[in-house]
Amino acid sequence: LGRRNEWGMLPLHCAVCCTPVPSLYHETSKVSILLREYPQAVSLPTNTGRLALHLALKYHQPIDIIKSLVYTAPETLTKEDPTTGLLPFMIAAVDNNSDDINTVFELLLMNPELVRSGIEFQK
């Protein structure tokens, strides 16, 4: 579970880049299994510095998977994506669909201080 591919991606990174799994099946999903067996992977970046949370948001994973990643490593909520320079809630806000707006809301609920950092980020 700690082996990386040629892009420096762990199995967890690869799993969150796949087509989103229905929320109903989250408990038996690959992501859930990988989180249980190797939770440290949430905090480990790829070769490009991206965390599993950044990738999960980019690939529109369901909110239950996003929450699982954040609950496993809450500090990842405050880590900028080195590719975009955006905080996780900002990555979710880039697309204009209702699921992503709900994701933005949920991420901000998990750490309301992110609103302040987003305002400071704009200066």
Give your account of this protein's structure:
By secondary structure, the protein is an all-alpha fold. 49% of the residues lie in helices and 0% in strands. It has helices at 11-16, 30-37, 52-58, 63-72, 88-93, 98-110, 113-122. The termini are far apart. The model has no long low-confidence stretch (mean pLDDT 84).
In short:
With 123 residues, the chain is mostly helical. It has seven helices and no strands.
**What is the H/E string?**
HHHHHHH
- The helix-and-strand class reads mainly alpha
Strand tally: 0
Q: How would the global form be characterised?
A: globular
**How confident is the prediction overall: mean pLDDT?**
84
Estimate the helix proportion, in percent.
40-55%
The percentage of residues in β strands lies in under 5%
pLDDT < 50 runs, ≥5 residues: none
